[in-house]
Amino acid sequence: MFKYHMPTKIYFGENSLVDNCKELANYGSKALIVTGKNSSKKNGSLDDLKSSLDNLEIESIIFDDVEENPSLETILKGSDLGKQSQCDFIIGLGGGSPMDAAKAIGIYIKNPLLKNDDIFNVPNLKSLPMFAIPTTSGTGSEVTQYSVITLHGEKTKKNFNQIVFPIIAFIDPKYTYNIPANVTINTAVDAFSHLLESYLNANATRLSDDLCENGFKLFSEVLVDLLDNNITHKTRSSAMLMSTIGGMAIAQTGTSIPHGMGYAVTYNKGLAHGQTNGMLIADYLLSFKDQSKILDMFKLINVRDAHTLKKFISKLMPQKITLTDEEITKYTTEFLSNKAKLKNHTEEIDYDGVYKIYKCSFN
Ligand code: NAP
Ligand code: ZN
Predict the structure, then answer these.
(1) pLDDT (tens digit per residue) in 155-205
(2) Which residue has the least CA distance to atom 1 on ligand 1?
(3) Ligand nearest to the CA of 140
(4) pLDDT tens, 253-292?
(5) Which residues sit opposite 91 in a β-bridge?
(6) Whose CA is nearest to atom 23 of ligand 1?
(7) Residues 6+ apart with CB under 8 A from 308
(8) Is 36 in the pocket of ligand 1 (CB under 6 A)?
(9) Which of 186, 267, 316, 341 fits as disulfide partner to 260, beta carbons 3.0 to 4.6 Å?
(10) Do the Cβ atoms of 258 and 277 come closer than 8 Å?
(11) What's the whole-model pTM score?
């Protein structure tokens, strides 16, 4: 027996937003657009969305203050704007940061009595109707129920522990055509790590495995183009589909230890989310006693083994980060209290095992 639940309707391909945006008219007459500071103004997505909403006579309010790895403070600020303007629904436009922020903002608007970090503590909260338009090919947040929020007080990031699937994801790879090389690499590696962590997951099912195997084939194409520095529109389209498939897979299984181990590093070292995952995955793979599924994965991505993968990743991500023994001790202890991520791992892993993954990845 297995369950598959991913209720988001997907429109994927050229002009998928402009051609299908009319469905938003069913959800009200005022939209809050949650986006980042700059990129959606430059890649054409904000213009497309604004003019489509204008044509539908839907008023739009823009909150364009979402930073990378969005903080609770930003989410509360966006919620205040949404409450004042009495919007009917919410659209996350951008990378994972604005999409995740939109999910959480939708909850604070729908539940105006919530304060501060209540979102982490009150179960089963509903959101305003939420829609997603990704402009990076990494997180798959357009098809997941998750929202990862930075908590400065705790010096880390946490999933909000609610379930908010976007109602519709409008996915058009053209918004990603001009993403700078470093963001392209970080986000592609993030999508790959979703596929990996879903495939090697205690919650994996036949269906999530099939999704991952399809995603791995797409990653093999994307990886060759990234290594050759030959990023074409076809690469962008494959990367976008890989990212969405990765999202559909983690919506079923959750992520596993690289994501859990990475949050503190991302926070404390100011690394991009995908870069941290990239630095951890080879040693995570090497830590498995049972390598059988990992061998299947390497065949699908057309890479010989974890050592070769590590070489490729360090070519793509040449920035080196080292952690002191004191930092590794602290992060290892903190991570071992993250029972949710640990239970998704298929093998027993203890303090020494986690310590070793950090040590080999960051030295
Ligand atoms: P991001 O933090 O949303 O954006 C990274 C950078 O890329 C920003 O500077 C952004 O600029 C820029 N950018 C976005 N789209 C662009 C485009 N089309 N062209 C040029 N630049 C563009 O990056 P992300 O990797 O997509 O998202 C990472 C976040 O998602 C993390 O907080 C992570 O924890 C979370 N996450 C969520 C899930 C989930 O299932 N919900 C899964 C994995 C990760 P602007 O700021 O100007 O837009
Ligand atoms: Zn991720």
Answers:
(1) 888 999 999 999 999 999 999 999 999 999 999 999 999 999 999 999 999
(2) 95
(3) 1
(4) 999 999 999 989 999 999 999 999 999 999 999 999 999 9
(5) 33, 131
(6) 95
(7) none
(8) yes
(9) 341
(10) yes
(11) 0.97
Q: Which residue has the tokens 């049972």?
A: 290
177 within ligand 1 shell (Cβ under 6 A): no
Query: 161: which residues sit within 8 A by CB, 6+ positions away?
Result: 119, 120, 123
**Cβ atoms < 10 Å from Cβ of 278:** 28
Residue 343: name the closest of 205, 243, 141, 197 by CA.
197
Handedness of CA 256, 212, 309, 295 (dihedral sign): positive
- pLDDT tens figures, 215-267: 999 999 999 999 999 999 999 999 999 999 999 999 999 999 999 999 899 99
Is 90 exceeded by the pLDDT of residue 333?
A: yes
Residue 92 Cβ contacting ligand 1 at under 6 Å:
no
Going from the Cα of 264 to the center of ligand 2, the distance in angstroms, rounded, reads 13
Exposure on the CB side of residue 19, measured as CA atoms within 13 A: 9
Nearest CA among 121, 223, 136, 131 for reference residue 179: 136
Contacts of 22 (CB under 8 A, 6+ apart): 52, 56
Copy the structure tokens of residue 64: 């364009």
Q: Which residue's CA is the nearest one to ligand 1's atom 39?
A: 141
pLDDT class for 98, splitting at 50, 70, 90? very high
